[in-house]
# Entry
Amino acid sequence: MSKYIYQYKQWPNFTWDEKQVGNILGKVRHLQGKIFGQMSNIGFTLKEETYLSTLTLDVLKTSEIEGEILNYEQVRSSIAQKLGIKTSEIVHVGRDVEGVVEMMLDATRNYDKTLTNERLFGWHASLFPTGYSGMHKIEIGCYRKGEMQVVSGPMGKEKVHFQAPHHDKVQKEMNALLDWINNEKEIDLVIKSAIVHFWFIIIHPFDDGNGRIARGLTDLLLAKSEQSSLRFYSLSNQILTEKKTYYSVLQKVQHSSGDITEWVDWFLNCLYRSLQSTETTLKKVFNKSNFWEQHQETELNSRQRKMINKLLEGFEGKLKSSKWAKITKSSTDTALRDIKDLISKGILRQETSGGRSTNYELIKKPGANTVYSK
# Structure
């Protein structure tokens, strides 16, 4: 078995090919600026709603990477309450959800605060409020006091993917990492977020929750790179999409003698794809905003508003009067009246594709440049 990166004498003095990663870093920085610029030009309510949706996605996906599925409504409600955003209903939120939300909000809203051992202990304790990870009791709010291996496979036939540094060295390793995070000023903060993510994963300082805390640190440094606590993209969502490659690259580079170019390059490309995906999502957000701006004087009932929003957000399949009735919990006659009313107001039209059943779609208002359909 080849040595781990922390077993080489140059650890933790990482190196990377600046020329190789420079091009993708430029693209990331450009798209970060573009998205932030677009968001700064929209209204407060829409910005708030987008921020809430992004944070909700980030919390859900960072947990899902670890195989933990959280309740969407609980996560959204918890974030909204903590941010003082009014939502239509109050949902009972479990302590496990509250903990992940608290960690994520501390990372993104307090990105300029000094990072300490105690602050990380608080993050860890918030992730495991019962002191258990599943059925297993773990040490919480402190660094691990035992060996740490990442393994897979059935009992007796386990495959060791990674052996973390000895627990006696964890405090010293974490002091070095935190000192570097707080005091290193020369490296671009996006590159720094990639390095910190890798460095923390290699130390694996906690009994459990290392992946989520590593992504929390990444979000903190990305917020710092933009000098803003407002997040409009979710790197965790993209990492989940590319989960297999994420672990594969980490596993490969953990045996490097110090060159982490492959990891930094993959991380930046993953971040770039996350930003690209967000740009597509934001087009829908702006589309929705423009629509309601154009129709602010139009009289519409709650069923019509609900269905129009669904269409603007990307309605799956064809819109028929029967679907309208089912979603709005109304009769087919009521659904048909709602639809005909929207056709008369120039908001809906009958699809021209024909066929046995009648389908409807949103249309653009005369003079507008955007077609409001999926």
